[in-house]
Amino acid sequence: MLKFPAESMRHTIFIRMVVTYLVIILPILLLGLYLYNWSYKNASQDLSRATLSQLTYYLEALNREIEWMEIQQYDLAQDTELNKIAVTWEFMDDVQKRESLNYITQRVTSLKNSSAYISDVYVHIRTIDKTISAMNAIDDLDSGKYNFFQSVDLKKEGRLINWNNFLELSVAESSGRMGEPPLFIIQIELDNEKLKDSLKQINAYAESGSLLVSMQSGYALGTGSNAQEMLQSYNQAMHEGKLEKTRVLDGMRYHVDSFSSGKLGMAVVTYLPETAVKRPLTKFVLWAWLFAAASFLAVLMYSYATYKLVQKPLLVLVRSFKKMESGSLDIQIVHARKDEFGYLYLRFNQMLSRLRMLIDQDYTQKLMMQRAELKQLQSQINPHFLYNSFFILNSLAKQGDITRIEAFSNMLGEYFRFITRNGEDNVRLAEETRHSQMYTEIQKMRFSRRIHVQFDELPEELENIRVPRLILQPIIENAYEHCLEKQADEGELRVSFEKEETEVRIIVEDNGSGITDDGIETLRKRLDQKNESYEITGMINIHRRIQLIYGEGSGLFVDRSGLNGLKVVIRIRLTGGEELV
């Protein structure tokens, strides 16, 4: 039962609206208190997204440069002149040797000038004990570099080899003999100063720095005043598996972002002091406190306005509804303001006025609509048997059986006298049963030799029960039409009656084999449907009529009969313990 605010304040809308407002505003207040940290985190995330995008672009651009160098390096390794020098040097005369060396020197110089990241290009030719480079031209074989790059494990080092903290690209040309060293090795050395210049371009602030590292080869290059310390801290974190967004060096916290390239086997790292990130956010602290104070003031003002404009008018409406629940329908609410409550009060007054008028009218109209629907459903059955009757009469006329035509005409007259009687919608069960027996007698004139009918006597205590007209005969007709007429063997029809304290059952069974278990289940589902798109005829018609009059629990129920055909049970629930429904 509804309690008034005087009895229980915690159940009032006023308290709930204030609590709801507090629930909404308190997270905002807490957000205001932590606005500074949130703004910093948001700025850090934006910075990280922008930085990661920049780092990704940087490593992709560097990878494209390396791929270009590798293509040129492998192209040089396949050069015919270079391979001729390495293999047929001792068979060449001096002029050929000089021309070939000059050609290779030009190729090496051209390769060096093709990229700003290349410091020098070396071709170490073992067979002639010469090293050709873009910077030093032709010199004696640099055995130290040759032996190093000959023995380097590319699977361990990766594409980029660390040589005295210089990044190198190397490719060797095999002699084709087992255990023999390569004919020559082409070495491309990257320029650390150019790499530093490229790293400086990705620094977003003057205080920031950048690192280019390869944990696989141990190469490291950095920019910034404390690049060495940051590099040591980063390498330690990599070994420990504890890479974080922030790092502390010499008491200063740094914001760190990194991105790795699996293709290059390298990572690029940028770091920026947190003071540089927080610098634009120093004014937010003051605004956060001002926002918190303004929010608390808004809570007080909202509470007062809610009570004045909502709670008090709502209590008037609640009290009026309480009076209406007790049966008083002459309440009038007076409200001076032209607001939403004024509209509600006006409609409440009008509702009470119309409620008294509609109570009787609605009930009467509902009964009339049910009666009209019942009439319409009954009218659908009346023509159904007429078609079959004329077909039977036509068959007898063709046979010239005058005696049976006379008997059939009398029975048909009695039959249609019953179904065309408009005096009452409901009849005694004894009359409905007699009418159905008349129908079976008519059918016996056609199927006496093929169909056996067992029609039990109606118990005397059931004779005066009133039921809708035409609820039993159409079920029997359905058995003839869909099962017994098509039966190859002898057909059998059984009609029986049962009664319990609150229910009467009329049971129609046949032994027809034309319906399957799936067909019975489909029929059962159609009977259970409340709204159907197809035309309502036959069994569904009867089911609807019985349910309209007797309510849920009554109607038709189908199952497999003991005769192995269809079993239809007409259930009629009795009321008041009497024999009248």
UniProtKB/TrEMBL annotation:
**Which regions span the lipid bilayer?**
13-36, 284-305
Database matches in Pfam families:
HAMP, HATPase_c, His_kinase
The UniProt record lists the HAMP domain at: 308-360
Concerning InterPro entries, the annotation shows: Bact_2-comp_sensor_kinase (IPR050640), HAMP_dom (IPR003660), HATPase_C_sf (IPR036890), HATPase_dom (IPR003594), Sig_transdc_His_kin_internal (IPR010559)
Q: Which CDD domains match?
A: HAMP
The cross-references to SUPFAM superfamilies, in alphabetical order and at most eight, read: ATPase domain of HSP90 chaperone/DNA topoisomerase II/histidine kinase (SSF55874), HAMP domain-like (SSF158472)
PANTHER family referenced in this protein's UniProt entry, alphabetically: SENSOR HISTIDINE KINASE YPDA (PTHR34220)
Name of the featured protein:
Two-component sensor histidine kinase
Question: What does UniProt list as this organism's lineage?
Answer: Bacteria, Bacillati, Bacillota, Bacilli, Bacillales
